[in-house]
Design a protein that fits this description.
heterodimer, A: 251 residues, mainly alpha, 2 domains, 11 helices, B: 329 residues, DUF969 domain-containing protein (chain A), membrane (chain A), transmembrane (chain A), DUF969 (chain A), transmembrane helix (chain A)
C-alpha cells in the first residue's frame, strides 16, 4: 500500500504546479525506493525505461523542416488559404478537422496529423485567422490561447476516438493480446473495432458541438473585451453573416 | 533492412549538433548548461541502443552483438532532470525572418509551400501502409521509420521549394523551436519511465486491490461504473490507458463484468479501453498529447489543451458507461 505514496507525490506536485520534470523525477525515485528497489536498481530502471521509450521523442525530428517552412511563410500562407474559404468560422473549421482526423485515423492513417506536423504550422494559424475574420478584429492574447488550445484538442480527440475503429492499432492489439493470452480466449480485433464506432460518433457529436459553441463564446468575449478597453464594439453580427470581417476593431 | 535504431541515432545527432550551436550562442544567458542538457539528451539516444541490446540479449542470448549497462543512462537521466528541473536551460534570441518578409515569401511561393509539409504524412503513410512487412523495414516499426524518412524527404523538398541552400538554416530554426519547448520535450519520456517504475513497484496491483475492496457485489450498473470510472481515474494517474487496462480488467472487467455477469466480451473490453482514452484527454501525465502541444503552440497556460478537452472527456466517460450498460448485456 505504501508505494501509492508515489502517486500522491505526482498529484501534489501537479496540483501545486511545481516543475513537472522535477515532480516526475522525484515520484519515480520515491516509488522505486518504497517498492524496495536499491538505488542501483532504481538507476537501472530509469535507464532501461528511458531507452525503451525513445520513440515518444521522435517527433522532434519534424522540427527543422517545420522551422524552415515557417521561416518562409508557411503559417502566413495557411492564414491566406483559410481567408479564401468564405464563411468558415474557427469552430466550423476545427469541427471539420476533427472529422477528417477521426476518419483518417479510423482507416489507420494516424500519422497524418499531430501537434508538430499539422497543428502548429497549419491548423492553429488557420483557426486563428478564421476567428479573427468572423469576430472582426485581432484576438486578445487570452482568446488566441483559447483558439490554439481548441485546435490542439480537435487533433487529440480526433485521433483517440478514431484510431480504435482500425483493427491494427496498438490499443486493439493490446486488448486481444492481453485477453487471449491471460484468459485463453479467441477474441478477434474486428469485434473490438466495431464497438469503437458508437463512441467515435459520440466524440464527434460532443466535441463537435463544443467547437461550434466556441464561435459564440469568442464573439461574446470579443464584445466584452472591446467594452473593457473602451473600444467600439467589433462589427461581429455583420462580419459573421456576410463573411466580410476585414474591418478591424479600432485601436 | 532499415532499423528504427538508425532513426534514434539520427535524432541523437541532431540534438548534439543543436547543442553545439547553443554553446556558441552568446545571446543565450544559460548557454553552457543548455548545451549540456541537449547534448546529453542527444547522447542518450545512441547509448540507449546498447541498453536495449542488453535487454534483447537477456531475453534471447546472442541476439545482439554489443551491449551497455543501464545504470549510467539512469544517472544521465537524473542529470537531465536536475538541469531541467532547476531551470538551468535557457534560450537564445532566434535569428529569423520578419513578418513582412514571411508575408512576401508566402506570396511568392503561394501554395507550393504546403508541398513539403504534406510530404511528411504522405511518406509516413506510404511506409506504414504499403511497405510494412516488405522486409525493407524492421518489423512493426514502419510507422516510426516512415516518419523519419518523411522528414528527411520533406527537408530536401523544402530546401528545393524555398530555394534555401544552407542546411544550417533549418537546423537553426528547429533549434529555436526546441529551445522554446524546453523541458516539455523531455516530459513524455520521463513519464514513460515513471509508468514502468510504477509497474515494477506494484502500484497497479495496489490500485486494483483497492478498487476490489470498495466494489459493491451483484450490481451490474455499479460494476460497469466502477470499471469505466476506474479506467478513467487510473489513466489520469498513469497518463496512459495501456497501463491501466490490464490492471482494471484483471480486477473488475474480466472476473465481475464478463465471468460473473456474462457481459459481451468485445463490448466490455473495447468500451473499457475507451473510458481510459477519455481519461487521457484530461491529464497532464499524458504529456505528449496534452503538454507538448501547449509548448509547441507557445501557450502561456500549459494546461490550455487539457482545459479545452476536460468537458469532452467527462461527457465521453458518461457515454462509455451508458453504452456499456445498455449494449454489453
Amino acid at each position: 500500500m505504501i508505494v501509492l505514496l508515489g502517486v500522491l507525490v505526482v498529484i501534489l506536485g501537479f496540483v501545486t504546479r511545481r516543475n513537472p520534470v522535477l515532480v516526475v523525477g522525484v515520484a519515480g525515485i520515491v516509488t522505486g525506493l518504497l517498492g524496495r528497489m536499491n538505488p542501483l536498481e532504481v538507476l537501472a530502471a530509469f535507464g532501461r525505461s528511458f531507452a525503451d521509450s525513445r520513440s515518444v521523442t521522435v517527433f522532434a525530428i519534424v522540427l527543422p523542416v517545420i522551422g524552415l517552412l515557417e521561416r518562409y511563410g508557411l503559417r502566413e500562407q495557411a492564414r491566406t488559404l483559410i481567408g479564401r474559404l468564405g464563411k468558415l468560422s474557427a469552430g466550423r473549421f476545427l469541427a471539420v478537422y476533427l472529422l477528417i482526423r477521426q476518419v483518417t485515423a479510423a482507416f489507420g492513417l494516424n500519422s497524418i496529423g499531430g501537434p508538430a506536423q499539422t497543428v502548429r504550422p497549419l491548423v492553429a494559424p488557420m483557426a486563428e485567422a478564421a476567428a479573427e475574420r468572423t469576430t472582426g478584429g485581432p484576438l486578445p492574447d487570452r482568446l488566441r490561447e483559447k483558439v490554439r488550445s481548441f485546435a490542439a484538442s480537435s487533433d487529440t480527440v480526433g485521433l483517440f476516438f478514431g484510431e480504435d475503429c482500425f483493427i491494427a492499432i496498438g490499443s486493439i492489439l493490446l486488448i486481444t493480446g492481453f485477453v487471449n493470452s491471460t484468459y485463453h480466449q479467441q477474441l478477434e480485433p474486428t469485434q473490438l473495432a466495431l464497438w469503437a464506432i458508437p463512441l467515435a460518433v459520440c466524440a464527434l457529436v460532443v466535441h463537435g458541438a463544443r467547437l461550434l459553441l466556441l464561435d459564440r463564446k469568442l464573439e461574446r468575449e470579443m464584445a466584452l473585451h472591446a467594452a473593457e478597453n473602451e473600444l467600439p464594439p467589433p462589427p461581429r453580427a455583420a462580419a459573421s453573416r456576410t463573411g466580410n470581417g476585414s474591418e478591424e476593431a479600432g485601436k | 533492412m532499415i532499423k528504427v535504431e538508425w532513426l534514434y541515432w539520427l535524432i541523437g545527432l541532431v540534438f548534439v549538433v543543436m547543442a553545439a550551436q547553443m554553446a556558441a550562442d552568446r545571446t543565450n544567458p544559460k548557454r553552457w548548461t543548455s548545451a549540456a542538457f541537449w547534448g546529453l539528451l542527444g547522447l542518450t539516444f545512441p547509448y540507449g541502443t546498447g541498453v536495449v541490446n542488453a535487454e534483447l540479449n537477456a531475453a534471447q542470448p546472442g541476439s545482439a552483438s554489443w551491449t551497455l549497462p543501464a545504470e549510467p543512462l539512469g544517472l544521465a537521466v537524473l542529470a537531465l532532470i536536475v538541469l531541467a528541473g532547476f531551470n538551468f536551460i535557457g534560450k537564445g534570441v532566434p535569428v529569423t525572418t520578419t513578418t513582412a518578409q514571411r508575408e512576401a515569401s508566402a506570396a511568392r511561393l503561394g501554395s507550393k509551400i504546403f508541398i513539403p509539409a504534406l510530404t511528411i504524412p504522405v511518406v509516413a503513410i506510404v511506409c506504414a501502409s504499403f511497405l510494412d512487412g516488405s522486409g525493407l523495414f524492421e518489423t512493426g516499426k514502419a510507422t516510426l521509420i516512415g516518419l523519419g524518412l518523411g522528414c528527411i524527404a520533406a527537408l530536401a523538398v523544402g530546401m528545393f521549394v524555398t530555394g534555401e541552400r544552407k542546411i544550417s538554416v533549418p537546423l537553426h530554426a528547429g533549434r529555436s523551436m526546441l529551445e522554446a519547448m524546453g523541458s516539455a520535450l523531455l516530459l513524455p519520456q520521463l513519464l514513460a519511465v515513471l509508468g514502468s517504475i510504477f509497474a515494477v513497484a506494484g502500484v497497479g496491483t495496489q490500485v486494483g486491490t483497492l478498487v476490489n475492496d470498495v466494489l459493491p457485489n451483484n450490481s451490474k450498473y455499479l460494476a460497469v461504473i466502477a470499471y469505466c470510472v476506474g479506467m478513467f481515474l487510473f489513466t489520469v494517474i498513469m497518463g496512459n490507458a495501456f497501463a491501466a487496462f490490464p490492471v482494471m480488467t484483471a480486477a473488475i472487467g474480466w472476473p465481475v463484468l464478463i465471468q460473473q455477469m456474462h457481459g459481451n466480451e468485445a463490448a466490455v473490453l473495447a468500451i473499457g479501453m475507451l473510458a481510459g482514452f477519455s481519461g487521457t484527454l484530461c491529464t497532464p501525465m499524458a504529456a505528449n498529447f496534452n503538454i507538448v502541444p501547449a509548448s509547441l503552440l507557445e501557450l502561456k497556460d500549459q494546461y490550455g489543451p487539457i482545459k479545452a478537452q476536460l468537458p469532452t472527456g467527462l461527457v465521453l466517460l458518461g457515454c462509455n458507461i451508458v453504452i456499456m450498460a445498455l449494449f454489453a448485456y
